[in-house]
Amino acid sequence: MSASKHSNGRAALRTRARRLATQALYQWDLSGSNLSQIEVQFHEDEDFSKVDRDYFHELLHEIPSRLDEVEQAFTAYLDRPLKEIDPVERAVLRMATYELMTHIEIPYKVIINEAVNLTKKFGAEQAHRYVNGVLDQVARKLRAVEHPQGKGGSGLWKQ
């Protein structure tokens, strides 16, 4: 298998892991259920044959365990208190910020694009624009070497 095919295959597995992790983090946020129980439920109810199981597990367990640190990295860029942010958007912001903080091997543009796509799929209409703008600011701070420095913060996603 070529490096490109391997890379694309791994990316697809991670995309599916992010989708399921968004749903699981949403469930955790609203219900307060035990993370291990949520994980078992997802493994029973979802097809994990094309999912990066380890990445799903990491996202589901590490984000809540580092919640204060993760939220601190993006709350300054919100226009309202975190508790007023839609739960789907909150889950996506937490996950993408965690990835920006801990997975330097994944380009920030990929992380933001994945977050925007998840928000389009599960979030409120036009919520992806808000998520994009917040994450662009987070990337400017956390990935300053990688992110082109510019004024404003129009975000990465363009219509």
Overview of this structure, please?
The protein has 159 residues and is an all-alpha fold. It has helices spanning 3-31, 35-45, 53-65, 67-74, 87-102, 108-122, 127-142. It contains seven helices and no strands. It starts with a helix and ends in a 17-residue tail after the last helix. Helix 1 packs across helix 3 (53-65).
Radius of gyration: 15 Å
Total beta-strand segments? 0
The amount of beta strand, in percent, is under 5%
**Helix segment count?**
7
Overall pLDDT score? 90
Distance between the termini: 35 Å
Overall helicity: 55-70%
Helix-strand string: HHHHHHH
Note poorly predicted spans.
Answer: 1-5, 150-159
Shape estimate: globular
What's the quaternary structure here? single chain
Q: In this structure, how is the largest beta sheet organized?
A: none
How are the SSEs ordered, and which strands pair?
Elements: H1 3-31, H2 35-45, H3 53-65, H4 67-74, H5 87-102, H6 108-122, H7 127-142
Helix pairs in contact: 1-2, 1-3, 1-5, 4-5, 5-6, 5-7, 6-7
Key terms:
single chain; 159 residues; globular
Describe this structure in a few short sentences.
The protein is mostly helical and 159 residues long. It has helices at residues 3-31, 35-45, 53-65, 67-74, 87-102, 108-122, 127-142.
